């Protein structure tokens, strides 16, 4: 039985634990074979080297994510919105959402990134865990008819 609230909560919990640097929580949120990627929509942003990743396996993913998180400031706030399930295939639940991140600059909340996150949440019968997390950050705008799917 699919627990939609638990799926949503997992995604929200991931971003909160990431932002707060709750490194001890991360392993329980990820499958052993987790695959995480991130990049900009063009692959050519000025900060591409900082955001680009393609990591597999819990150990490698945690190592990269920790390095990435420690290099960013605090507070950092990732917000997931418009989360919805695209399909269910056995124990794998394909989910998509928008992501919006902010930090503080000169005492003001400052937007730093936004984009689309596609993930696979997997149930092992006891808990839901992230099996895939693929983030594409928005860096340029085009006419709707010129977008690439």
TrEMBL record:
Residues 2-133 form the SnoaL-like domain. This is Nuclear transport factor 2 family protein. Pfam families: SnoaL_4. InterPro entries: NTF2-like_dom_sf, SnoaL-like. It comes from Streptomyces rugosispiralis. It comes from the Bacteria. Transmembrane segments: none annotated.
